[in-house]
């Protein structure tokens, strides 16, 4: 690694020929952490802090050279600038704005110079990296460089050449090795935000990528599951743009919600349950009126998950509050199931048998929302509960809720005209 650092440090951008500029850019991208500005990427094990610092310095030199004594010439719809062996182009459209941060090889969103340097030589760089990507497991640095290139160039340009990267993302996702999977997931997460949606819907790429990410839902690695959440949900939205227009017909969102229900119930790791419940809440919003098909199953899921309460339990209670607001009739039909589970949770909380993430406010809010829909069922279920020998805090909460239920019941009784 010392020899490679010496070779990298000895590079003089002023003497680099036009033919070698693409290769130099690829090497610099190999020593540039593509996602460090988001604190998402571990250290590049083929590189070092000195390598990344040197790459950052060389990028800065290239930027200075590209701005000195330049002359312009027309190149399609873009203005290409060439000078002293270094070429760059300027674009008025919104380009990727990630450049090296001072003191490290990190990229931060401030200037478009990096995007211009890479975009000008994109075709030549792809010709260099493609043979290595065909044997990607032998060239992890080139995989990282390809990610840097596509996440930094102009979005329109990245979308135009996305087909060159697409098969390798699928290969990275299909391996059992964690690092390539993380690289693919993080690259997709950035590209899904930057590249126009038609790029992914073209040739059904969105569905292929969605099917490639879906197995990660059942993985054992928490970090990989967390990283998969954003791109998977975004691809789900893209795949279901047309089918969501007809909520009466089950679609891909229903299939995804069904997988989440099974996965949440089968998973024993509370941290992974938190991520999956977050996914469920997001997917629930995509169901629209189709959520009525899942209200009863959601009530049973909440009942089961409250047996071992955790941070995910609070999120499930918040989701049930939304059900009470948007689908009150369906929530009323499952009043017995949900009220019994909530009263039991309240009793366990009052006796200190729940984790700190479960608080009084979330329990009382969920009970209040359900009581507002069906006070009669709550009164029947809690009949005689105040005379039981239990702690004072539980009795206090039940007394307040019973008073509220009685008021709600009286207000719902129709007045008989004489």
Describe the structure.
The chain is elongated. The chain is mainly alpha-helical and 418 residues long. Helix 2 (21-30) crosses helix 5 and helix 16 (311-326) runs parallel beside helix 19 (360-373). Strands 1-2-3 form a 3-stranded antiparallel beta sheet. The protein starts with a helix and ends in a 6-residue tail after the last helix. Mean pLDDT is 79; it is low at 1-5, 36-41 and 68-111. The protein has a domain at 1-68 and 79-152. 62% of the residues lie in helices and 5% in strands. The longest helix is centred in the last third of the chain and has 21 residues, at 392-412. It has helices spanning 2-9, 21-30, 49-66, 113-120, 122-134, 140-152, 155-160, 162-173, 178-194, 197-201, 205-213, 222-239, 252-266, 270-287, 295-305, 311-326, 328-333, 335-350, 360-373, 375-381, 392-412, and strands at residues 71-75, 78-83, 86-90, 99-100, 107-108.
Record the SSE blueprint.
Elements: H1 2-9, H2 21-30, H3 49-66, E1 71-75, E2 78-83, E3 86-90, E4 99-100, E5 107-108, H4 113-120, H5 122-134, H6 140-152, H7 155-160, H8 162-173, H9 178-194, H10 197-201, H11 205-213, H12 222-239, H13 252-266, H14 270-287, H15 295-305, H16 311-326, H17 328-333, H18 335-350, H19 360-373, H20 375-381, H21 392-412
Antiparallel strand pairs: 1-2, 2-3, 4-5
């Amino acid at each position: 690694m010392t020899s490679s650092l010496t070779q990298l440090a000895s590079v003089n951008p002023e003497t680099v020929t036009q033919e070698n500029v693409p290769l130099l850019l690829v090497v610099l991208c190999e020593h540039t952490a593509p996602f460090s500005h988001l604190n998402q990427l571990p250290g590049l094990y083929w590189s070092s802090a000195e390598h990344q610092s040197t790459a950052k310095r060389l990028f800065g030199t290239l930027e200075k050279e590209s701005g000195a004594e330049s002359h312009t010439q027309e190149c399609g719809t873009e203005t290409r600038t060439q000078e002293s062996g270094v070429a760059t182009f300027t674009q008025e459209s919104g380009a990727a704005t990630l450049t090296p941060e001072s003191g490290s090889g990190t990229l931060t969103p401030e200037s478009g110079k990096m995007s211009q340097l890479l975009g000008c030589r994109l075709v030549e760089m792809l010709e260099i990296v493609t043979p290595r990507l065909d044997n990607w497991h032998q060239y992890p640095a080139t995989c990282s460089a390809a990610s840097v290139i596509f996440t930094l160039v102009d979005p329109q340009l990245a979308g135009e050449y996305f087909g060159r990267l697409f098969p390798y993302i699928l290969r990275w996702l299909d391996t059992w090795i964690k690092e390539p999977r993380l690289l693919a997931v993080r690259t997709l997460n950035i590209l899904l935000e930057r590249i126009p949606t038609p790029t992914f819907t073209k040739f059904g790429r969105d569905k292929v990528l969605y099917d490639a990410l879906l197995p990660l839902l059942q993985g054992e690695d928490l970090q990989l599951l967390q990283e998969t959440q954003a791109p998977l949900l975004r691809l789900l939205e893209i795949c279901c743009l047309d089918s969501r227009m007809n909520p009466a017909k089950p679609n891909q969102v229903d299939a995804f919600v069904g997988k989440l229900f099974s996965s949440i119930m089968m998973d024993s790791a509370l941290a992974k349950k938190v991520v999956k419940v977050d996914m469920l809440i997001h997917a629930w919003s995509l169901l629209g009126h189709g959520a009525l098909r899942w209200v009863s199953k959601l009530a049973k899921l909440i009942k089961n998950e409250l047996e071992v309460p955790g941070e995910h339990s609070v999120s499930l209670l918040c989701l049930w509050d939304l059900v009470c607001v948007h689908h009150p009739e369906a929530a009323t039909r499952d009043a017995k199931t949900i009220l019994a589970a909530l009263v039991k949770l309240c009793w366990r909380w009052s006796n200190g048998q729940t984790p700190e993430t479960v608080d009084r406010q979330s329990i009382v809010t969920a009970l209040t929302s359900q009581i507002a829909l069906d006070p009669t069922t709550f009164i029947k279920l809690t009949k005689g509960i105040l005379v039981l020998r239990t702690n004072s805090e539980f009795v206090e909460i039940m007394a307040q809720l019973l008073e509220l239920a009685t008021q709600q019941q009286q207000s719902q009784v129709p007045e008989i005209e004489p």
